[in-house]
Amino acid sequence: MPERKPHCPYVGLRQNRAVRFSTPSAEHRCHVSGDAMQIPVDQASYCLSQFHTQCPLYMGSVNAPKDDDDRATVIPTSASARRSKEMRQNPRDDQRLTPSRRRKTSAQPRIPAAVYGLFLGILLVAVVVYVYAGNQLSGAADDPALQMPTIAPTFEPLPSTAPTDVPAIVVATATVEPTAEPVPPTATVEIVVATATPASIAATATPEAAASTVTPDSKEMPLILYFADSTGRLLVPVQRNVTVVSKRVAGASVNALIEGPRNGLTRVLVQDLKVNSLVIQDGIARVDLDRRPTAVGDVRGFNAIALTLTQFDSIKGVKFLINGGEIPAEPGLPNERPLINVWNPDNLTIADSSVLTLYFVSTNGRHDIPLSKIIPKTNDIATAHIQGLIDGPGPYADALKRSIPEGTQLRSIKLDGDLAVIDLSVAFADAPDRAGALRTIVESITSIPSIKRVQVVVEGESLAAKWGNEFAGPFSRRVINAE
User: Does 286 lie in the same domain as 352?
Assistant: First the structure.
């Protein structure tokens, strides 16, 4: 599958958001919020690169001023951006303008009105000639030899709205509060058939659901899909805009899984897997496949499908079939929403434990990956989440980076409505990946549904005092791993 184009889809000119330059330009504006905003970040590192999804503007971790706003927002720039700024501030001698040269440069000649009139006259004559020639050649339009080839547009069409803020789905069990609301499906009964439908399955369909396939309509929707990281050990949630036909959103999500990953992730399902049918009835998705999605003993494929399907409110469980037949019992084979990337250091049972959803940055820095860490039951789940981040990724250290520096201590967590104020020791200020450290704190702590906003302070002092105003907060949960 081809990689997405290495630039942000929301960068464009102020007057025309569909136009962008291939190199950094002061004319560029960010349209992620729907308005033309100044771009205070290094365009080469974010806007015009494949890492634009890590941009503070794209993730919503900073609000840039609009063009009519004279406030300045400072964003930490890369070394290359600082060097470019120094070159602009200290041009070479042969680039400096003397006062006389500046006067000559600034004095722009005014075009007389007569020239405009002449130009309009020439344009009118050209239009008349064009119309006349078109009439003469219209008879040859049906001749294939004379038809002109279609020319592709210079710039790709851009979306008209900012990306939908759909949080990544995080595992919920009886001991863990559910996360933000998942994307609801548009139909309570869904049928997707790739081959002849078995009679036993077809009988469960309602006439209204079967008739919906007669007049298909398509719509692009943001869906959460699950693929494997570069090591193949961990499942990674990503958000992809998927074309949904005839409101069959669940079937579209499974087809997108079979289509495969992008951006450095690896395939979980076998490439030639086919779905015989998918029927949703009474909260159970019956998925009939033509073969196992992964090898015997490997349940990652079943888990990826179950996690993807149970993001929808109408699906509470999943029943897997192979060519209409039951699958023998197998350890780890899910029939409801499974935990993702389980880490159970003390071999606890779910009934006697609490489950933390902790996000860490992948070693290549391209994705945020959740771990389900099982700990002894606790009532202070917010403190447990932050302490879990401080402790690090444990056995997954080869695939995940420590987000919070070693030696950091949690001083306190204060809850004020849906706002959590997290006070950390001064060691946190030395985090090498500032954006990653703050982002994973927000992603982890907002997996608790009562917490919607997060503000981080250091020794009681605003983080802005050490890292800049863009880190002042508070911050809300944003889209995780958007493609």
Answer: no
Phi, psi of 353 (to 5 degrees): -150, 170
Q: Which range is least confidently modeled, 118-132, 175-189, 363-377?
A: 175-189
Average pLDDT over residues 336-351: 91
For residues 258 and 252, what is the distance between their CA atoms, to the nearest angstrom? Answer: 10
Tokens at residue 55, please? 């941009």
Please say which residue of 326, 358, 374 terminates a domain. Answer: 326
Q: Are residues 358 and 472 in the same domain?
A: yes
Is the pLDDT at 460 greater than 70, yes or no?
yes
Same domain, residue pair 267 and 375: no
Domain that holds residue 403: 342-476
Kindly report, residue by residue over 394-437, the tens digit of the pLDDT: 999 999 999 899 999 999 999 999 999 999 999 999 999 999 99
In a domain, 177, yes or no: no
What tens digit of pLDDT does each residue of 55-98 get?
888 877 666 676 655 444 444 444 444 444 444 444 444 444 44
Give yes or no: residues 375 and 287 share one domain: no
Residues 383 and 293 in one domain: no
Helix-helix angle 249-259:300-309, to 10 degrees: 150
Rounded to 5 degrees, what angle do the CA atoms 167, 46, 446 make? Answer: 20
Establish whether the linkage from the previous residue to 65 is cis, with ω within 30° of 0: no
Q: Which band of pLDDT confidence, cut at 50, 70 and 90, is reported for residue 273?
A: very high
Q: Are residues 313 and 195 in the same domain?
A: yes
Q: Among 326, 358, 380, give the residue marking a domain's end.
A: 326
Say which DSSP state 35 is in.
S
DSSP line for 306-361: HHHHTTSTT--EEEEEETTEEPPP-TT--SBPPPSSEE-TT---GGGEEEEEEEEE
Would you say residue 232 lies in a domain? yes
Tell me the residue type at 298: D
Say whether both 218 and 320 belong to one domain.
yes
Continuous segment of H or E residues that includes residue 56: helix 56-59
Radius of gyration of the chain (CA): 28
Query: Of 354, 399, 427, 428, whose CA–CA distance to 177 is shortest?
Result: 354
Is residue 174 in a domain? no
Question: How buried is 410 (Cβ within 10 angstroms: 0-12 exposed, 13-18 middle, 19+ buried)?
Answer: middle
Total domain count for the chain?
2
Which DSSP string corresponds to 185-213? PS-SS-EEESSPPPHHHHTT--HHHHHTT
The model's pLDDT over 197-253, given as tens digits with 9 standing for 90+, comes to 333 333 333 333 333 443 468 899 999 999 999 999 999 999 999 999 988 999 999
